[in-house]
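tool=predict chain=A
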Amino acid sequence: MKTWLLCETCVHAEETSTQPRYDLISECTACARSCFALVSKLVAECDMEDMGNMVWDCMIHCRQCAQECGKYTDNEDLELCADVCEVCGDSLRELTRFSLN
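tool=predict ok
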């Protein structure tokens, strides 16, 4: 949920900016949506099989968002978003590895 919240915050900040960075908006929006969908399914206690590709999609979107936000080292909020997205992607990778074993 932290990743979703930070991504949504970044999207809002960019959309209200005088010079919005559309690549950043796109990546953060995709990440926020996939994280929210995955967390919603997890809270509903669905089986991993019921989630289809949601875990993979979320992991990929987290990585892409981290890469995009990481480009802006002069902005603390975007650096934090990049860090949180990276941790989220790593956590999902480990959960997937654990569930496959």
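The first helix runs from residue 2 to 15. The radius of gyration is 14 Å.
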